[in-house]
Amino acid sequence: MNSCQVLRDAPVRKVALFGGTHGNELSGVFLVKHWQEDGAEIQRPGLEARPFLANPRAVEKCCRYVDCDLNRVFDSENLGKELTGHVPYEVRRAQEINSLFGPKGQPEAYDLILDLHNTTANMGGTLILETSRDCFTLQMCHYIQDALWPDSCPVFLLEHPSLKYATTRSVAKHPVGIEVGPQPQGVLRADILGKMRKIVQHGLDFVQKFNAGQEFPPCTIEIYKIMEKVDYPRDKKNEITAVIHPNLQDRDWQPLNPGDPMFLTLEGKTIPYEGETTVYPTFVNEAAYYEKQQAFVTTVKEKLSAKGLKVS
Amino acid sequence: MEQGLKPPVMSHPQYLPSLRRVAVCGGTHGNEMSGVYLVKHWLQDPSELQRSTFQVTPFVGNPRAVEQCVRYIGRDLNRTFAPAFLNTKASDSDLYEIQRAQEINQIFGPKGSSQAYDFMFDLHNTTANMGSCLLVNSESNLLSMHMCNYIQKHCTVRHCPILFCQPPGEEANFTMSVAKNGLALELGPQPQGVARADQLAKMRSIMACALDFIELFNKGTLFPAFEIEAYKVVRRTDFPRYPNGEISAVIHPNLQDKDFQPLKPGDPVFQTFDGEDILDDSDDTFFPVFINEAAYYEKKTAFCKTKKGTFAQPAIQKGF
Ligand SMILES: [Zn+2]
Which residues of this UniProt protein bind Zn(2+) (chain B) (predicted)? Predict the structure, then answer.
């Protein structure tokens, strides 16, 4: 097959909008609650859009999670775990979600899940994909990027030989994460809310047009592909000894060249980036990743081609 | 105290005792990282805190909250230094912060007694765009007011507005109230759980400047009288809510990040999820602060309204 072919793909009828996968990322929490009261803005002919609060207990406590990160437990081990004895709340919840919107990998699963997140990093409105081989989501990203132009809308590809995420949205046939920042945890900003809302609108518009038979010609999009996680410098007791350098802070998606400042120790010493090639950092200084031993992740820019697309 | 003179004459300084023991608290709230990181660093290497005329003791206010990177475990430590909590016999069944407040009171107080530390700094962050805000109980805290004036004049950090944090008629129950004098730093914007290099550097410079002030004061420098601008909290404004208590609107984009800027009657303050503007319905101009502070959602505070005033302060000098 080559990229000039037009791919015939099944209609996307069952769509879910997840908010509160992380309970303190408030844009999605409040949008979903709002849509549950008044869903007019997410209704489109030819599809069912279901707003859903993924981790209600974490939302209630306004924390990321109660027992463990809901966005990392959608693997076969946790989804198949027997629910006896002490099972973390999020594992139980993952199984509920899997039965409501999955089962993951099965034909009955939802067609599309848009999972709404916030970050403390200056990532703007970012779309997150799990695979480079899904022409539907690539075309959707291309459509959203076009619609938002001249505002940028980076696409982050979580495809890596060893880093596996097992995200909540992965129960759907086409999973897409929407990550908007910067916004502190537990805070709701009107500008970030507006940005997220717009992305969702364009995403649903795309689905509606696709279902209605519009053909999307082959396209190429630029994506940032995950390379590696970079941890903070730490002492023997595992305490962080340096912070993100001011030159790197807020510079998500900007090139980081060999020798560029990366961290600043509390003694005032600059620690440079010592890689051999230019990378594009993202999730720079994300609050939730301190415990994951992660100061930022590096990415490389790549171009991906999507085949033409039309509903079958 | 040699305050027998209390001269009405402007040129005469008020004489205050020198400061011998100074404490610096970080992590009163465990997810406000500038103070947490600085105090942990100073516990390893206190050299930058050292001055010749007094002793400085850094400490972590709420170590358990710091460990879990949360604001508090059982209740807000920074509202726990009231007699009702300090003077009851602590038992293991008490909330952690009550026990911890009593410990802090034992080490650095007792609050209100002659054995208490002379000064306490308390290092905070806010998600609001408050710059490098200096929090003082009230304008009657003469020494703290002089310190603020000195910081505004000598510190390289710009925009250090003074905010009086003690609601009128209420007693001070903040951590710093254990010592005889206090100053809290409230730096933002910084998300909870995040340490930004820029905020860290600002907090550090202000601390260095404040300690320099104490050193000069202890050495007998006369600090002349001055007038200074400061903001006083007069009321809190909650988010609009649905009958079930859920927030029904967000801070209006025109108000977001506009801490310390005038808010006039009729200015938009909230925006509903349907895009409708909600206007300020007061009949006076206020200066809002703590706009969209994460920790205040549960305190039912979307922002605090302040009044700006000018406050005259007499000269001070160390008494002999
Ligand atoms: Zn998230």
Answer: 29, 32, 124
B240 Cβ contact partners less than 8 Å away, ≥ 6 residues apart:
B247, B248, B249, B270, B272, B278
Q: What is the pLDDT of residue B11?
A: 64
Q: Are strands A296-306 and A219-230 parallel, antiparallel or unpaired?
A: antiparallel
Counting residues of chain A whose pLDDT is more than 70, the rounded percentage is 99
Which is it for strands A296-306 and A280-282: parallel, antiparallel or unpaired? antiparallel
Check A48, A77, A108, A179 and give the catalytic one: A179
Beta-carbon separation of A190 and B250 below 8 A: yes
In this predicted model, what pLDDT tens digit does every residue of A35-47 receive, in sequence order?
Answer: 999 999 999 999 9
Q: How far apart are CA A115 and CA A71, in angstroms?
A: 10
Q: How many CB atoms lie within 10 A of CB B22?
A: 23
Q: What pTM did the predictor assign?
A: 0.93
**Interface pTM (ipTM) of the complex?**
0.92
pLDDT (average), residues A79-101: 94
Q: Which of residues A86 and B129 earns the better pLDDT score?
A: B129
B186 is a catalytic site residue = yes
- Containing H/E element for A177? strand A174-181
Nearest chain B alpha carbon to A33? B246
B195, amino acid identity: A
> Are B162 and B229 contacting, i.e. CB atoms less than 8 angstroms apart?
yes
Measured in angstroms, how far is the CA atom of residue A64 from the centroid of ligand 1? Answer: 8
What pLDDT is recorded for position B170? 72
Q: Which positions ≥6 away from B122 have C-beta within 8 Å?
A: B25, B28, B35, B61, B78, B174, B175, B176, B182, B183, B184, B185
Of B200, B70, B43, the closest CA to residue A242 belongs to B200
Distance CA B146, CA B131 (A): 20
How many CB atoms within 10 Å of residue A74?
23
| A251 CA distance to ligand 1 middle (Å) | 20
A165 is in an annotated binding site: yes
